[in-house]
Amino acid sequence: MKKDEIIQKTIDFLNKNKENHEIENLTLNVILKHLGISKGSFYYHFKSKDDLLFQVINPLIKNQTQEFKQNIKKLNNLKEQFCLLFEPFILEPDNNKLKQIENFYVNLFFREYPNKIKLQNTKKIYTKIKNDRKSLLFQALKYNDIKVDKKLTILLEFLDTTMIFYYYINKVLYKKYTNNEILDLIDMLCNLIEKQYKNK
Known about the structure:
Blueprint: H1 3-16, H2 28-35, H3 39-45, H4 49-72, H5 78-85, H6 97-110, H7 116-143, H8 150-174, H9 179-197
Helix pairs in contact: 1-4, 4-7, 5-7, 5-9, 6-7
């Protein structure tokens, strides 16, 4: 089986079984059983299960970013647009595809990898998702006639980082959903931005 075929079949498998398999908890044996290939064939194309999932998740991120670009235009205000972009930290249950993707890279980013190559790949995915979301946040601001300066850029970066840490810490330590608190934070931030930065 060719490498591209393995990637596509894994994507199809995740889409069909998203209620039963969270991406970060998927085992290599489950993947191999679905693909019908041996470990030898698998390791010919991929260094590890995480290596495969890195390559699986890239098109998912790309497709989701394109969907966001289209959907942002249809929403009425900044708060609705920000809620869309931070859906992974708001929506329940855990079988939501957006939340699976976000959980995947957040969990990988916080794991302690002895292998530097794995850590570099993890940071690459982490950075890509953050940069894509940052670009979309700027797009939402533009649609609302909000001028972006250095202070607002720093504020948005702080917001994104805060969301990730707050969500992850509550999930791991307290098994607690954070959707209400994050909605309140988005509401407060959007009110602040529109009050101080919106062009009049």
